Input
Amino acid sequence: MKTRTRDAAMAVTVLCTAVALAACGSSGDSSPGGGSESSGEDTPSIGLLLPDSTTARWETQDGPLLETKIKGLCGDCAVEHANAKGDVALQQEQMDSMITAGIDAIVLVAVDARSLAAAVRSANEADIPVIAYDRLAEGPISGYVSFDGEEVGRLQGRALLEAMGGGSERQIVMMNGDPSDPNAVSFKKGALFVLKGRVEIGKEYDTLQWRPENAHMNMSGAIAALGAGNIDGVYAANDGLAAGSISALKSNKVDPLPPVTGQDAELGALQRILHGDQYMTVYKPFAPEASAAATMAVAAARGESLDRLATDKVSTRGADAVPAVMLTPVSVTVDNIKDTVVKDGVYTIEQICTPGLRAACDEAGLT
Ligand code: GAL
Output
C-alpha cells in the first residue's frame, strides 16, 4: 500500500469539490467534513470511474454493487466514486485527480477507450493498478472483467431472426452503439455474423454516447427513407437505443411495431417486453461482474497479484495477457424474465408488474 494513502482520499475529496468534478462521492469517510482522515494510514482507497448517467445500469446496478462488494471484502476501504457524465475530458480529469491523490486502485468504465489511454499510462507510472470494468480500456491495465461482447451481438441477431420469422426479403434497421466503446464494436460484429446474408440492412447508424434521443432521431430518418411499412425488424444494441427507436416508430404511427432487440435488462425494457413493444433484451448478470471486479480491485489495492483471480487473459492496445474474467450473457424474452432477472433478485415481480401490466405478467407466469 502506498504511503500516500492517508492523504489520498481526502485529497480526492478536495479535488472532487474544487475541480469541477461535480459527480464525485466518497463512502469511506466517517468524519463530518468528508474525506477519509479517520480511516488511518492503512486504509486502502479504491476509485470507481463510471461513464455516464444515460444508461441506467451504471448508477443503479454497477456502482452500488461494486461499492457493496468492495466494502464486503475490505471493511475499511474507502471508495471514491465519480461519474463522467459522458464527458471524456471530465473523466480524464477525474482519473488524474485520483492519481495525484495517490489512490490505491481504480475501477474504470472508460467513456472513450482510446482517449483514456494516456490517463491509464499515468496511473501505471504512479504504480496504481487499473481494472477495466465491462469496457476494455487501452493502455497498461492490470485486470479486466466483462462479458463476451460478440456473443451479446449473436444473441441479439438470433433473437431478431427468430422474431421476424421466415421470408427472404426482410429489411432491418441497425441502431449500433458508440464506436468509441469497444463493446459496441463487438456487439455489432456478433450481430452481423448472424444477420449478414439473411436480411437486408436498410439503414445502419452509430449512436454517439449511446443516447436514446440520437436513436430516436436516426429511427425517424430511417422511417422517412425506407417507408413506415418496410421495416421488418430493428437491431438496437441496448435498451436505451431500443427505447429511442420504439418511441420514433410510435410517433410515426408504425403499427404493428416490428421486433426490436435490446441489452442491459433495464426495468423499462422488461416492461416494454411484457407490453409487447420490445422483443428481447440481453441480461449480463450484474452481481458476478461487480463481484469479480471488486475482488480484483481489493487485491490490486493491497498489492497482490491478480493472476490467481483470472479465468482468462486478454490483450489490449498497450498491454498483453491481462488477467481477465469473462462472463456469459443471457437472452431474455417474455418467456424467461422470471427465471433470470427475477430469480437473481435484480427486480421483484412487484417492481416489474405495474397495474397496467398485470394481465401480461399473469400470462408470463410473473405471479
Ligand atoms: C456498454 C455496456 C452495455 C451498455 C452500453 C451503454 O459498454 O456493455 O451494457 O450499457 O455500454 O452504456
In short: The two ends are 50 Å apart (CA to CA). The chain has two domains: 8-147+285-327, 149-284+330-363.
